[in-house]
């Protein structure tokens, strides 16, 4: 990028001249990866705010949304504001590009929230601002505040495996509807899908404390133990388990141990990104112990059908399970 173009963008950041809006829009759309443009944006950010963000990631997101909105004529500030309203995790920077100081003032009045989402049929690895990491299973989401390092609380809907950095002054808390799970530093799995009847916490290393909201009771787990909370009654139980059956999904292996048919289908829905429709006359009492690695959905259904009286139809992402007697 030529120096005169950088000077023009620099002047726009300082004065927000409407004459330069379209020019700035084009430069961020075409030249985002240029180091000079990134450095200029970073300079103005640091002058205007003490907030620490992954600026390069934010700029790439803006670049994506600018290109997406290019199909229809729009004022650049309107485009930036629409993007801002959709992505609360970064809040400030789109407004900063369109109107630097107004954006800063607005950002400081709101609580910014980041979200990590894994669609059905996927497993993703994530890293949190405090150095903790983990994996998110299909059909799951995590949300947490921008000041996560100082307030290590996050909301989970679905299943996640956590490897938590130790920080005794800032406990790590996983919030779910039935219970909160608090740790200092550990490795554990939480399955908390809103549609499930149980909240399941499985501990591999360290120690976790589970606070049951239904009856205000707590349970502390040791490695190799699992806690289950009935989301309807609030009843809670703890047992020793083979943790690999509950954590191997993060290594792209789904292991099921003596699992009821309905629960097998539920986990396969999340694994393959499909929806099962079970006909009313289909009655299945058999439990399954099996491992899924690279097998396709059709291959697994064929194997299950060898020991169970059912047939199936696959229509896109819908799978219909029918009794052989139908």
From TrEMBL:
GO molecular function annotations of the record: sigma factor antagonist activity
Coiled-coil annotated residue ranges, if any: none
Organism, as annotated: Mangrovibacterium diazotrophicum
Domain FecR protein: start-end pairs: 116-209
Family annotation (PANTHER family): PERIPLASMIC SIGNAL SENSOR AND SIGMA FACTOR ACTIVATOR FECR-RELATED, PROTEIN FECR
InterPro entries hit by this protein: FecR, FecR_C, Ferrdict_sens_TM
Region annotation Disordered: where it falls in the sequence: 217-237
Protein name, as recorded: FecR family protein
Pfam families attached to this UniProt entry: FecR (PF04773), FecR_C (PF16344)
